[in-house]
Amino acid sequence: MNYEAFFTGHLDRLRDEGRYRVFAELERIVGAFPRARFHREGGPAKDVTVWCSNDYLAMGQHPVVLDAMQSAIGAQGSGAGGTRNISGTNTFHTALEQELAALHRKDAALIFTSGYVANETTLQTLGALLPGCELYSDAFNHASMIAGIRHSGAVRKIFRHNDLHHLEELLAAADPSTPKIVAFESVYSMDGDVAPIGDICDLAHRYGALTYLDEVHAVGMYGDRGAGVAERDDVLDKVDIVQGTLAKAFGVVGGYIASSAATVDFIRSCGSGFIFTTSLPPAIAAAAAASIRYVSSHPELRVRHQERAATLKRRLAAAGLPVMPSATHIVPVSVGDATLCKQASDLLMDRHDIYVQPINYPTVPRGTERLRLTPTPLHTDEHMAYLVSALQDVWQTLGLGRRAAAE
Ligand code: PMP
Q1: Pocket of ligand 1 from Cβ distances under 6 Å
Q2: 279 DSSP 8-state letter
Q3: Which atom of ligand 1 is nearest to the CA of 253?
Q4: 68 C-alpha vs ligand 1 centroid, how far in Å?
Q5: Best mutation site among 120, 142, 363 for ligand 1, i.e. most ligand atoms within 8 A of its Cβ?
Q6: Whose CA is closest to atom 14 on ligand 1?
Q7: Which of 121, 245, 252, 357 most suits a substitution to test ligand 1, by most atoms within 8 Å of the C-beta?
Q8: Does CATH number 3.40.640.10 belong to domain 63-297?
Q9: 332: closest CA among 354, 357, 350?
């Protein structure tokens, strides 16, 4: 086989379909967020406003987090020195796990190198080792859950997005004696809609299923202490296994699950993606714990974040831009075509010094391509006014106005 020809042919097809991923190279500057320096290929760098960061609360540059990270590096160095089992468990790791268990009001927690790995490892391990396990997965679940479910080899049943009736139909048709897991998210990252967590858990439990909830886009941002939508909805105890990330609202990197002592010990003891990899650097764990403590005890951050999102949605709608319905801080603006979506993103960057990455298939279904805006507490009214007028200009230039309004 001509491997090179195969690879370049495949990449050419992605380009033709407008799906070839081009990374914007950014230099984050402490104290400047949401401004950052954008490095253009072959051109001079320029300062831009970032409107698509998942550092949702700007904790990635918060002095409390940076201080914790710097002092941990000073005291303990860079890498962890091994897997958790072989010399890589550190006091910062165990302290972080205790912090996470307390946040979610669970017996125990377990950290992984990313949220992706947490989902993949946990679902793969449970699906493979629970005898005859069936995994019930929301149709919009993230790639990391899908990967874990597929790799487990367990029977996979997909229920229509947030559709309790469909889930019940599937559960009712199954053998009552088989182990089951219902896996879903709280805030869906591309549409910004929210699952009815309590109702899904009640239904799952009626059919003897465990509940597995990904709160990656909610931890830090919802609930009195930032434990997520399950806390906001007062259903923390109905979620058997909660999964989250340290990389978004907490501004660092890493993922975790929190659950009963036996469940966590089971994954700790049997999950390949936990066992056979070097643990997170101690300084990352120290920074994440500091971030969680800060975010938990500063509810005004959440209030400001929600206010910024509501204001942005109102301003976009008032300007006639096709902002999609969203119940959360995620603000998608519909374009509906991959090429136009890329052009809109390029125009925002080239003409207006605004960075918003286009969201295309397979991240969202074809025909629903969009710009996904993520306001943070540090986006000001001025940033918003400038963004709205830039979007109006782009919509007019690309002839998107009528197209979008007709949708
Ligand atoms: N779950 C969801 C819903 C996500 O959107 C993502 C990544 N954006 C992940 C899990 C993976 O989290 P991480 O970035 O920490 O790997």
Answers
A1: 114-116, 119, 142, 144, 185, 189, 214, 216-217, 245, 247, 255
A2: P
A3: 15
A4: 24
A5: 142
A6: 115
A7: 245
A8: yes
A9: 357
Helix (H, G, I), strand (E, B) or coil at 211: strand
User: How far from each other are the two terminal CA atoms of the chain, in whole angstroms?
Assistant: 46
For ligand 1, the distance from its centroid to the CA atom of residue 246, given in whole angstroms, is 10
Query: Cα separation of 250 and 228, whole Å?
Result: 12
Establish whether this prediction's ipTM goes over 0.90: yes
Tell me how far the alpha carbon of residue 216 lies from the centroid of ligand 1, in angstroms.
6
**Residue ranges per structural domain of the chain:** 26-55+299-398, 63-297
Beta-strand runs (E) in 331-369: 331-334, 354-355, 358-359
Residues belonging to the active site: 248
CATH of domain 26-55+299-398: 3.90.1150.10
Amino acid at 244: G
Q: Is the pTM of this model over 0.90?
A: yes
Closest to 99 measured CA to CA, from 227, 212, 187, 268: 227
Instruction: List, for residues 355-374, the tens digit of each pLDDT value.
Output: 999 998 888 999 999 999 99
State pLDDT tens for residues 209-263: 999 999 999 999 999 999 999 999 999 999 999 999 999 999 999 999 999 999 9
